[in-house]
Amino acid sequence: MLSNTRAASIVPPTEHSQPRSRAKLVSPNWSDQLGFSCGSLSNSNKELMSTKMLHDPPSKPERSFEIVARRIAAMIQASYRIGQRLPAERDLAKAFGVSRPTVREAILSLAMAGMLKVRSNSGVYVISRQEAPDVHALEGFGPFENLEARQLIEPQIAAIAAQRGTEATFAQLAEALAMMRWEHAQGREADTSDHRFHMALAEATGNGALVQISDSLWRAQTESGIWQEIHNHMQMEDYRPMWRRDHEAIFEAVQARNPRKASLAMTRHLTNIRDALMEASNARSMATTKAPANSPKKAR
Q: Which of 40, 109, 124, 296 places its Cα 20 to 30 Å from the Cα of 102?
């Protein structure tokens, strides 16, 4: 049985009950937050401010690996000696609240800048305590950061291509695949045909913005200094069969007009690239002798 006190608390209000007061909605005073009164601005100044906000280009975004590299460099300068080993990658990732691939990109950038040395079966060691390692000069985004963007966009592009693709689309994809097989049979990398395959998918969406984004992500990947450094240590012939199977699966799903399978096939392809890069950028691989300068460098 409910007590009188509790029962009273859940009795609905009667016609004699006092209505609850409603909270008054107050619009925020933006001029106070901005530090000036909008009324104090002349019309010409208001127009100038509006134009400036619309037309000023956005500042160049900081790359994730660059931010982490600066933190690692600061940690080294504060607490580490020459020859001392850094904590394990997973521990650094946990300490900085980022992913392991981002930490790996940061370590590789510092190694390329001459601050760290990656040793096989041993770890990462400090070889310089320079004040400001020049990782900013490295071209492009980190390969894992770029792949994350591709993983968000390209599976959807493949799905849309499966819905909107034409016979001309299928012919372009088949032609790119045939060229890829021929180039691999010659022991060459299929850079042009691979790029053409992905662009044909983007063009099949009929969306020019997606075409531009897809091409931009592709070019950002090949321009990445860290991407190129990893590829110097990859034996690309080991991966070619997997790249061909990946592209064939994407083509078959798109041609069958199955958006779900096309999306899954593209996701699997990009995951395979990520796994290959993780394997090729571990301490054992990066500590090996670099491949000759004229060896193939790209995997997509």
A: 296
Amino acid occupying residue 257: R
Nearest of 146, 147, 285, 139 to residue 225 by alpha carbon: 139
Q: 3-state SS of 134-166?
A: CCCCCCCCCHHHHHHHHHHHHHHHHHHHHHHCC
Q: Which residues pair with 124 in a beta bridge?
A: 118
Among candidate residues 251, 284, 249, the one with its CA nearest the CA of residue 268: 249
Rounded to an integer, the average pLDDT of 203-218 is 95
d(CA 259, CA 157): 9
End-to-end CA distance of the chain: 71
Give Cα 19 to chain centroid, integer Å: 55
Q: Is 37 helix (H, G, I), strand (E, B) or coil?
A: coil
For residue range 47-90, what is the model confidence (pLDDT) as tens digits? Answer: 555 555 555 555 556 677 788 888 888 888 888 889 999 999 89
φ, ψ for residue 2, nearest 5 deg: -75, 140
Residue 17's pLDDT is 44
